[in-house]
signal-recognition-particle GTPase
Amino acid sequence: TLTQRMARIVKTLRGEARLTEANTQQMLREVRLALLEADVALPVVRALTTRIKEKALGEEVIGNLTPGQALVGVVQRELTAVMGGDYAGQAAELQLAVKAPAIILMAGLQGAGKTTTVGKLAKFLREKQKKKVLTVSCDIYRPAAIAQLKTVTEQAKADFFPSQPEQSVLEIAQAALDWAQRHYHDVLIVDTAGRLGIDEAMMQEIAALHRALNPAETLFVVDAMLGQDAVNSAQAFNATLPLTGIVLTKLDGDARGGAALSVRQITGRPIKFVGVGEKLDGLEVFHPGRMASRILGMGDLFSLVEQAQHKVDIQAAQQLANKVKKGDFNLDDFKTQLSQMKNMGGLSSLLDKLPSQFQAASNPLKMNQAEGQIRRMEGMINAMTPLERKKPELLKASRKRRVATGAGVQVQELNRMLSQFDQMRTMMKKLKGGNMANMMRGLKG
Ligand code: GDP
Ligand code: MG
């Protein structure tokens, strides 16, 4: 699998100071395969690997990292950059600051998810941006399509403009626009017909709509599951219409996300949203960094590796992995974890970077984001005897009172810390064979 591939890359070639032609050649081949496996289109893969190679050569291999880890860092950064973001993954927003109503024109093949996305956007704009939204269907060829838009618009609690069947697409759009103006709508979303394939008549129609409406946003909706084929439709639509953004749908399925890279690279347009479900709440703002991770298939593991360059004692991480493997994770280890997390810039930012499975399991720790609280937890552990740290079960009520007093906290807080430790221990046991070990391997190389 992809994960194994990347793990293999991470392990190769220890103890070299720089990424060179020689030590990266084989790894670059693996990267190329990994991208192809993630469904990135071939020409895009070629362009990307060339770029990655340029960026990688000469890159210093810092500290305990292997050239493999350094290269993975480069790959992650490049993918993120190509998808339009810095590492923080700034989202591209809808540009609706025009004279109201701002028009959003939806484009894309049939089945891409346009109508569903209209509903999602209507809900998003109404709830998150307090906009008054009107929708209209220019998909006059299929009566069911108009009914579908009406349904999702009602679900979104937005307003629906009923199209008259005898009118042309342009007349309908104009009538909706007049209505929106007269009723002070902030946004008019125009749904359109899509064919199953690229079709000249369809392209002409949507181009005419674009000319007539002069939309603030022209969003190309594309099914991520299409993988390589997404590129062809993106190319065709991009050639006909001045697209302002992309919505990548059906990412809740097994789509690997390669389409995001391809479509972005081919059109040069930002991906603004991703669809992650059939329901109206299945819409997320697009984050390049997260998508890069998805394409690499390993959560945000690589950014962890990156942070590790500077701060984590990799040795300690490895020892911890071994302990977890043997099933004797104790309060001393818990303390080590706590202080590492503190070093890495706060629990919350760390938790954000862990693979999602691990994130969910780490929830109890989220309650203790504040560094002050971590220090108190460390204080409580320090107040225990070495034996108690190894076997916290030994702590009876009287000892708990002593420990709490020693650390200057209430017994309840001590109990809370102990139960968090317990939850973490349970979680780590669960992850023993899987993610945790992978994570530690990733850190260690
Ligand atoms: P249109 O022809 O472009 O208007 O596409 P529709 O909005 O009618 O969507 C086609 C199908 O894809 C429907 O069954 C939708 O429920 C489904 N769909 C749309 N977006 C998503 C998504 O993000 N995730 C999933 N799983 N299904 C979606
Ligand atoms: Mg539709």
